[in-house]
Amino acid sequence: MNISKTNIFVGMLMLGFSYSAFAQQELKGKVSDFLTFAPIESASVYVDGSTTGTITNADGKFSLRVPRELVNDTLVISSIGYKSFKVVVNEFDPAMDISLEEDTASLDEILIVVETRPKTGNDIVLRAIEKLEDNLPEQPYLQKGFLRHKERNTKEYKWLIESAITLYDSSYASGAKKNLKINVDETRKSYDLRDVDSLFAYYSYLKNTIPRFNTKSKSLVRDTIKTTTLVDAIKWNDTRTNGLDILFRGRLNLIRNAVDKGALFGKDVLSTHQFKLDTVQVINDRKIYKIAISKGPDFAGLDTDRVYNEGFEPNGWIYIYWDTFAVKKIEYNLVAASDNQRARSKSLLGTYENHKLVITYMEYQEKMYPNYIYYESPKLLNLGDRSSDAWQKTKEQLAKEKESQFYYAVQEILFTDIVLEPEVITAALANKEWSEDIFSPRPYNEDFWDDYNVLLESEEEDQLIRDLSNRVSLYKH
Q1: What pLDDT, in 10s, does the model give residues 448-464?
Q2: Considering 36, 70, 103, which residue would you say is the last residue of a domain?
Q3: Which of 56, 151, 154, 179 could form a disulfide with 159 if both were Cys (CB 3.0 to 4.6 A apart)?
């Protein structure tokens, strides 16, 4: 990507967001349960009436930069099932831990209030899908976000990327494949220590890029492969399994892409899912349905190009506002269920749970926008030794090979600012070099990150970063 044009593009966006390093107030704190003192993860921390916000990490901690023009507004800290904490930004005391009390509603009271309301989980979800065109944005918008991508094997972290991204979406009604764009603006951290895993990527790369490739004609020995070719193969494998395209334009974008053909939450949702009303909870003094997700008559699948992603059963939870039927949060898992998928998953990945997804939404000007995305999936890397002398290997050698066979890959995205001004959107789209490639290293721009809201690292992640930064990388920065 042309750096000068990219900087102009990023600078233009920053002007549109009206942010300045000299116009920020940083808030830090910890959120916990009032009775158990346990940290509350993924609690929303935001300035009321704005899109400035973040979420708490696994330790219940947060860090939020608030523009000076919002310091007299109300800071809200909320989590489903708890009473919200509210304070004027200027009066926030960072020395005081925030404790949230549980808050619930009466299910019986909700069910009898109006007879015409849906009463079963299936009916509530179907109503929510019908209401998507009312609750999701109907005009183009931009969102600024922070991405953290990390991968590990069974023993250690192998890869970390942190980037600033911009999302453009023309509207819910339009197809995501042609009307949704993503740009990686800047990269804050990029540590890549993968090596052995490259063999499977290299094999698959050759098989899928060379016509009539003979799978028996290549000996997959690491020392015989040029590093440049290896890097090309890794990037190809990254893109087809963990690229932003898969996450945003595919079936895993459950709500946004419900209008697409074959969507998981489309018109045939009850053929692959069933929904059972569990409880009615409260968030920010509003009632919200908590609904369990379970399997339907048919298996669910993702229809992923060149990757076998079929034969799953779904489970999890979906949270839907009682008053508007807007979806607030989805916790969604896909578990291997068909004979073929169970055999593949257990043999190659060591787990039946192939996809774990969490999506939360923020409400802004009566529309729901993506706020936070967590996606975890095992990623196949190495088929192992299939040679005739594999039986001669020791148990220790085979165990080590098994450890490097797949990674647990995690992508987290925190969205904050929303831009609706047509002139800013038009100017951003005029840049012809939008790139969603998070895997290519970029120069570090310290000034850019001075005023950018990011996901606060947990203690575990902080250790991961220190560990990775002290070791050699495949990519030379």
Answers
A1: 998 899 999 888 888 87
A2: 103
A3: 151
Q: Tell me the HSE value of 388 on the side-chain side, using a 13 A CA sphere.
A: 1
Q: State the residue range of the domain holding 400.
A: 125-180+191-469
**Number of domains the chain is built from:** 2
Task: Report DSSP state, residue 346.
Answer: I
Cβ-proximal residues to 378 (8 Å cutoff; 6+ apart), any chain:
349, 350, 351, 354, 406, 407, 408, 409
Sheet with 53-55: strands ordered across: 53-55, 44-47, 74-78, 85-88
Question: What CATH number did the domain enclosing 91 receive?
Answer: 2.60.40.1120
Tokens of 106: 């009466």
CA separation, residue 324 to residues 128, 149, 288, 289, 361 (Å): 8, 34, 10, 11, 14
Residues in the chain: 477
Q: CB under 8 Å to 469, separation ≥6 — which residues?
A: 191
Strand residues in 269-350 grouped as ranges (E):
273-283, 286-295, 312-321, 327-336
- Greatest mean pLDDT range, 76-85, 196-205, 213-222: 76-85
Task: Output the 3-class SS for 110-159.
Answer: HHHCCCCCCCCHHHHHHHHHHCHHHHCCCCCEEEEEEEEEEEECCCCEEE
Residue 108 lies in a domain: no
Q: Which residues of 15-32 are buried (b: 16+ CB within 10 A; e: fewer)?
A: ebbebeeeebeebebbbb
Give, in order, the Cα–Cα distances in Å from 391 to each of 256, 385, 398: 49, 9, 9
Decide: 48 and 74 in contact? Cβ < 8 Å. Answer: yes
Give the bridge partners for 75, in sequence order: 47, 87
Instruction: Kindly report, residue by residue over 224-246, the tens digit of the pLDDT.
Output: 677 777 777 777 777 777 778 88
Contact in structure between 384 and 200 (CB atoms under 8 Å) = no
Judge whether residue 404 has pLDDT over 50: yes
Confidence of residue 112 (pLDDT cuts 50, 70, 90): low
- What tokens appear for 354 in the block? 């192939």
pLDDT at 348 (0 to 100): 79
Q: What would the mean pLDDT of 201-227 be, rounded to a whole number?
A: 68
Instruction: Give CA separation, 151 vs 3, 382, 412, 436, in Å.
Output: 28, 15, 12, 19
pLDDT in tens, 246-263: 889 999 999 999 998 889
pLDDT tens digits, one per residue of 46-103: 999 998 999 999 999 999 999 999 999 999 999 999 999 999 999 999 888 899 999 8
